[in-house]
Amino acid sequence: MSVKYERFLLVSDLDGTFIAPDGCVSAENREAVARFTEGGGRFAVATGRSPLNSRQYLADVTVNAPSIFFNGAMLYDWQSGQCLKTCSLEGALWRQFAAACCRELPSACIEVYTSEHCYVLSNPVDDDPRLQVEYRDYVHAELAAVQQKDWLKFFVCAPQEQLAQAERMARQSGLGPDRCTHFYSAANYLEFVGPQVSKGVMLKELRRLPGNEGRTVVAAGDFPNDIALLQQADCGVAPADGEASTRAAADRVGVSSDAHLMRWIVDTLLPEL
User: Fold this and answer.
1) Shortest CA distance to 109 belongs to which of 157, 146, 153?
2) Together in a domain, 145 and 105
3) What are the strands, taking DSSP E only, across the chain?
4) Domain final residue pick, 193, 227, 257
5) What is the pLDDT of residue 2?
6) Strand 216-220 relative to strand 235-238, pairing
7) Is 205 exposed, middle or buried (0-12, 13-18, 19+ CB in 10 A)?
8) DSSP reduced 3-state for 250
9) Which of 3, 60, 98, 200 is the most exposed, having the fewest neighbouring CB atoms within 10 Å of its CB?
10) Is 50 exceeded by the pLDDT of residue 1?
11) Would you give the distance in Å from CA 11 to the centre of its chain?
12) Domain containing 159 — which CATH number?
């Protein structure tokens, strides 16, 4: 049976979903996305990464729909290079919270993300090793040098006890649910974005864009920060090796991320929908 891919919008998380645990995108996943887009499907990604540090994984992948970055703080047109929407961390409270984190969290790697750069506010000796691999253009900066920039995401890499302290400090600083959304993207990664910001909320914007209206949305993700994305889709998919809470929230559980999840979605799931 011939599948009409032109009725689908497929949205995939990157790490742990499209990118396997070995840090690579399989040839099988690339080929499946190529067939999907050549057949009229629209493919987008939804990731905590920036467009710049996603590029190495998507260089030869057809991303033909605007995509979600910074865990929902940016909607970006991959093909034109145009930023369509951002959700900023505005106000003095964020700058005060950043100063408190730099002061009170010894050994933490503290990062601020704008649409152009990753700024590291903490001591270089505490840099997360992933920075040299993922963000080759990251910049060490004093807080005063970035206070006036447009912050999209605030990120802390630290042991879990320090991350718990950062959560308490945020509440004490007045950064409650009405002022921010925060979540763990790994055991030692705590991320803060604006209020009511998530991959799921930005998916609402994505599916309203020209070319996406009326399409069946299939979204895939592996971690709790993907749950809102899966719930907003018509069909949410978690890999078999995804977190338990994400698998529980998904409509379907597919193969594991190292067994070519995109190929499973394109060849097995879509014909059933």
Assistant:
1) 157
2) yes
3) 8-12, 42-45, 67-69, 74-77, 82-86, 109-113, 118-120, 139-140, 153-157, 181-186, 189-193, 216-220, 235-238, 252-253
4) 193
5) 58
6) parallel
7) middle
8) coil
9) 60
10) no
11) 11
12) 3.30.1240.10
Rg (CA), the chain: 18
Q: Which DSSP symbol is given to 77?
A: E
State pLDDT tens for residues 106-141. 899 999 999 988 999 999 999 999 888 876 679 999
Same structural domain, 75 and 114: no
Greatest pairwise CA separation for the chain in angstroms: 62
- The 10s digit of each residue's pLDDT in 82-95 is 999 999 998 899 99
Q: How many domains does the chain have?
A: 2
DSSP H helical segments within 208-259, as ranges?
227-232, 244-249
Tokens of 116: 């152009």
Q: Which residues contact 167 (CB under 8 A, 6 or more apart)?
A: 182, 190
